[in-house]
Amino acid sequence: MANVNPDLRKERENGTFSVEKLTNLLDGGKHVTDRRRHVERLALNEFSKGEDYNFMSRKERYISALHKTERALRCCKEYGLTKPDEVYWLWQLAFPHEASPIQLHGDMFLPTLTRQGTEEQVNKYLPLAEKYQIIGTYAQTEMGHGTFIRGLETTATYDPQTEEFILHSPTLTSLKWWPGGLGKTSNYAIVMALLYTNGKNYGMHPFMVQLRSHETHEPLPGITIGDIGPKFGFDTIDNGFVQFDHFRIPREDMLMKYSQVLKDGTYVKSTKLKKSSYGVMVLVRSMLIYYLAIQGLAPACTIAIRYSAVRRQSEQTKSQLEPQILDYQTQQYKLFPILASAYAVLFTGVKMKEIYYEVDNEIQQGHTERLPELHALSSGLKALTSSMASWCIERCRLACGGHGYSAASGFPKIYVAVTAACTYEGENTVMLLQCARYLIKTYQGASNGKKLSGSVSYLSDKVNSRSTITSEFSLKSLVDAFKHRAFRFQACGSDPEDSWNRNSVVLTKAAEAHCYYYMVSVFESVVEAVEDDAVKRVVGQLCQLFALFAIHENAGDFVQDGFISNDQMELVKWKELSLLSDIRRNAVLLVDAFDFHDEFIGSILGRFDGNVYANLFEWAKSSPLNKPEVQESYIKYLQPLLNPNKSKL
Ligand SMILES: CCCCCCC/C=C/C(=O)SCCNC(=O)CCNC(=O)[C@H](O)C(C)(C)COP(=O)(O)OP(=O)(O)OC[C@H]1O[C@@H](n2cnc3c(N)ncnc32)[C@H](O)[C@@H]1OP(=O)(O)O
Ligand SMILES: Cc1cc2nc3c(=O)[nH]c(=O)nc-3n(C[C@H](O)[C@H](O)[C@H](O)COP(=O)(O)OP(=O)(O)OC[C@H]3O[C@@H](n4cnc5c(N)ncnc54)[C@H](O)[C@@H]3O)c2cc1C
């Protein structure tokens, strides 16, 4: 590429491995890379130009997102993009770190319809939804409850006289509040409501509800609906509220795959699938982990590492050129563990998607044995990786000094999009406790001799009492360290019934320890499977750094019972720092391997060509506040103070 910043060019000439081979590994094969690049070229033709998001109002961002939605849907149709990955590649360039107003339609509305609806209901609604004649959202959370699903208040009371359900919001706190796209965009919603029939409450069930007229898009009578107002981020999507006032829907619109209400009001439960109505949340949590890597950790460290290669600051040696800030050990300590985390979360996200589809397939065949483990693992990993991503993005911003605080850095947009994942789809603390609940029960089973499999098999294994870590720092010895820590935490767990709350801080750490062990195990297995020696070596270094950074940051967990000795901990600290200089040579190439387009990253600091300053100046000059040269408001409000005799405009 012509006109690349010389420092960045030198970085790219000095690497030790093939970036293309690593990109192929991250994609899952060369054929995938080729296909992704093809789809991205199509997307860039359509979406690379347009008004700068940073200079738009919230309302302009929403309107622009509606327009982009229509164009993205048309592109997918025009180019025959139907596979989920291909649609995702186009949409992430159409909506870089933005949610489309119809995000929930694909992410939750359709999956709930297809997994909770009967064949008849799917046949009725799916064709309309696939043609976007129905645009739906998933309305579960209320103003008063989001976490505690059994505390939700919206009611659906069956009327056998008319064979209808009466949807009602009995209190202010029962208003559905937060669902994405509910405010202005969706004309349908799957509403989670308490089912009452024959005077009995059967708990939370899903209902297909039309909200707005097909002809006018006006709310239907009995429905008060709107946008909940500006948020921390998510400007492009109208998270909304809806209030039902004795709103009637046909009996047939209760999604009845797993339970039914007959015409006479008899309730029938036709499945042993526990929490069947909670299923779509497991799906989104499982998909989120990969999203957090690709939309959060990876772009953030790409920005910070590329910028750190072109930013020269201060003086290391008298009368020498100011050094690249990437040469400071402190800068490497800030950024390289984050780079390692980006790879760790990406590999874990790929694995989590695989496991989800395996278990989902089994459930469709009626085998639900693995659902509790999937629920626990997806809950714990969603919590750990979304917290990790939030922390890492902020650390990347801080590593870029003043320009990191500019919207031109790209960090504000990435951060507010990603940090929401700590809350939605299950608030992180609650998700860790769900994971811990499963682990404690499983550990108790293992203690009674039950043989375990999958991600919890270690709880019935024999674990080493002393670490085998040497100066070689074999990946197996690192995995073993995290296995030991996770085991120890489960062993000190409590009986969920009588001391749950008093132990819940420890239980959240037990869940995190379990998930860390899982992530290091996945990372190690990926490294072992890499064929190219040069790629294997550099990805192996990242795996070592990911593990050693976590061991050093949580040293107490590993030395407390003598598992890692003081001498071994000194070795850990030494190796962690020496890995920083090993990785320094390849740092820029390791972020190049994510193969992001500048249009996706949306950062002047993270441009592929590294030409930051000239583009930063042009960007600043394009700010609307710089036109006209003298703002009318200045003349109106301040000039009289400075020139009392000068007449106002
Ligand atoms: C890619 C970008 C996407 C951006 C879009 C973002 C859109 C966001 C959408 C949303 O946020 S939708 C709303 C999400 N809301 C939640 O996640 C609510 C979180 N709360 C819960 O899930 C539940 O309240 C709870 C915390 C799990 C507790 O539920 P409940 O009180 O009913 O259960 P308990 O009595 O405590 O028993 C737990 C029992 O149930 C099992 N279980 C719980 N959840 C599931 C599940 N999803 N699937 C399967 N099984 C589940 C759990 O394992 C326990 O089993 P046992 O221990 O009793 O055997
Ligand atoms: C950007 C965004 C998009 C969203 N989209 C949707 C959507 O499309 N559809 C939808 O239905 N919902 C949506 N939500 C709502 C989201 O699912 C809820 O906000 C989330 O489940 C958290 O519930 P809450 O708000 O009630 O938080 P709370 O549970 O009130 O959390 C507040 C605090 O209480 C603590 N707490 C709560 N329960 C416990 C417990 N048992 N033990 C220990 N601590 C506890 C939490 O840890 C937290 O610190 C969205 C939210 C956001 C931010």
TrEMBL record:
Major subcellular site: other
GO molecular function per UniProt: acyl-CoA oxidase activity; ATP binding; FAD binding; fatty acid binding
Biological process, per Gene Ontology: fatty acid beta-oxidation using acyl-CoA oxidase; lipid homeostasis
Cofactor(s) of this protein: FAD
Keyword ATP-binding annotated: yes
Acyl-CoA oxidase C-alpha1 domain ranges (all copies): 278-440
InterPro entries per UniProt: ACOX_C_alpha1 (IPR055060), Acyl-CoA_ox_N (IPR029320), Acyl-CoA_Oxase/DH_mid-dom_sf (IPR046373), Acyl-CoA_oxidase (IPR012258), Acyl-CoA_oxidase_C (IPR002655), AcylCo_DH-like_C (IPR036250), AcylCoA_DH/ox_N_sf (IPR037069), AcylCoA_DH/oxidase_NM_dom_sf (IPR009100)
Domain Acyl-CoA oxidase C-terminal: 488-643
Family annotation (Pfam families): ACOX, ACOX_C_alpha1, Acyl-CoA_ox_N
Residues at which FAD binds: T141, G180
Cellular compartments per GO CC: peroxisome
Source species, domain of life: Eukaryota
Subcellular location: Peroxisome
Active site, renumbered: E425 (proton acceptor)
Keywords: ATP-binding, FAD, Fatty acid metabolism, Flavoprotein, Lipid metabolism, Nucleotide-binding, Oxidoreductase, Peroxisome
Domain annotation Acyl-coenzyme A oxidase N-terminal: ranges: 18-135
Known pathway: Lipid metabolism; peroxisomal fatty acid beta-oxidation
Keyword Protein transport attached: no
Family statement: Belongs to the acyl-CoA oxidase family.
Descriptive protein name: Acyl-coenzyme A oxidase
Species of origin: Paralvinella palmiformis
